[in-house]
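Re-run with default settings, no changes from the original entry. Doing this only to confirm the output is reproducible before filing.
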Amino acid sequence: MTAMRTEDYWMEHSNVCVPPLLGARDAHVWRIQLDVTHDVDVLRSLLSPQEQARANRFVSAHHTRRFIVAYGVMRQILAGYLGSSATDLRFGVGHHGKPFLELPKCNVPMIEFNLSHSGSVALLAIARGRAVGVDVEEWDDRVRHLAVSERFFSPVERETLRTLDADGRVVDGFFAAWSRKEAYLKATGRGITRGLHHFDVSVHPDAPAVLVADRLDVDAPSRWTMRAIAPRRGYSAAVVVESPLSTLLLFEAAIG
């Protein structure tokens, strides 16, 4: 068993207006640090009226700021890949709530994306012409991990989690599994409409992230690639992309 990663290596990319090359079989994940210095007024100006209204609904100014940073930087990064203005981006929502880019009718390569944020970290996953989902979870030892797993995990996942509880690793095991399950649901675009019990993911935080089985879609494990990500100590994350996935690159959005 490999040692637990406390954090992956994130390549700093200082100019999101000139994004790295994204191949047809590649995926990029950007880490956005929500509590570092950002020009929040500039980022707010990039948001749509609907996004600004969502930001204003937070009771805490701290959470408002985090939302603005996550969505403002996301717009800057996506605009870089598309060669457009961040304020010109338009988003639609799928049948089960997954956002997508409404691209103009021109020769623009289709970009798929997914955003997740928890605590002080946001992750933005990007692929070209293939569905992608990402999820990040900040650990919380106040959660009744085994009780929650009884409601949302499959029997085989619960069994593994009980083993981890006996080894004192129930917290990182729970959030490793939760992020993998959420990333898969987000990639498929179905959300929780079919529940979370019908498929199994690897649970052990040191094991490779794998979609083990989907009893409602038996061919799914061959069509989806899952990777675990370690965004920071005390966080779990995973990304799921339509197969094949040749290269997964991790970038730090260095925006002052």
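The first strand starts at residue 11 and ends at 13. The radius of gyration is 18 Å.
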